[in-house]
Input
Amino acid sequence: MYTIYIQHIYKVHDIFFISGLFQSSDANEVIRASGEYTLEKAKKKAQERIDHLFNVSLHIAVTGESGTGKSSFINAFMGLADDEEGAAKTGRTETTTEPTPYQHPTMPNVTLWDLPGVGNIKYTAETYFKAVEFHKYDFFIIISSVRFRENDFKLAKEIQRRKKKFYFVRSKIDDAIQAEERKKTFNKEKTLSEIRRDCQENLKELGNPPVFLISSWNLSDFDFEKLVFTLNSELPEHKQYALLQSAPVTSVALLEKKVDMFKKLIWAAAIASGGIAAVPDRPGLTFACDTVIVISFFTKCYYAFGLDGRSLEKLSERVNKPELKNLEKAPLLKELAASSALRMGWSAAGEFLCSLVPGLGSAVAATTSLAITHDVLENGLKVLADEARKVLTVAGLEKGTQ
Output
């Protein structure tokens, strides 16, 4: 546990500083969590991890023949209605003639690309691969609303040849289920198995890749969660950060995956934030936690967990639960909703960070040791995760995928 010896408190531009000695046996545990044994090595790794969390780019290519629901899938992933500003253009005919980027609304370093269909008359199979600039993308999602056809197969073979990852998505599954429901012998699980088997029949030469059944109207149904988990397991670690932050929360399992990711990065945020100034044998040292990193960390959690007003409104409409828009917010959530990390006043930031560690006075809000900073991050993450779990309970998604 940490102990605090305060020698002097002074204030500059609404930020309190403490001159004194912070002693912490927990500090070494935070450093060990990095997998390193020295502070210098831990600092270097922490900066790398935080840079990956905040800045790493991810480029997702969505392709397939015209009319298969590519744009609808992109909009669903980004949490946008088809007619909302920033959404991919949808239509019954091919609406994309050039590779078109769509920046994620809360994760600007994540871009989904709507690629023209392979069967687009503007391209032959040979010119298509050069025109879409394959090298740009981290992986490809090939979408079909029926069985996969020859063009899909050719596209997959070319992607495979270039040693890139591809994933097959059978879209509009809700429509297929509704069509089958009219039959007296209808069995949902049997119907889904038959659709999956029918799709895979055409893909045997590719090594029987999995086919994910998805409804863009409701990502909580069917295989969206499996798709995200598969992508997450096959991406490099630093790309996983971007994927998990940007994927919409559609189940408890997906939320917990996000929470676990942030838990594993607490040590990095604590070290990178400036709490590393706590050196036990240096009495009289001034300690100042970099609240920008700490608040930015919480802001990342806030959007990744779908706690912003826009995400709550969309979820409310999808599950028909108006009460989601009016949930009583925890104090931490109110602070994050009030302003972004960079706009939040230093004094306000210090006050609410302080509230995350019981027993600390407001005077030490912005002046923490490494161990205290770690506790601030740990407690704040718990508050946000609990809030997100409450949202899923109200939405009726507490038991996982519907």
User: Anything to note?
Assistant: The chain has two domains: 2-32+255-394, 57-248. The longest strand covers residues 2-12. The mean pLDDT is 77.
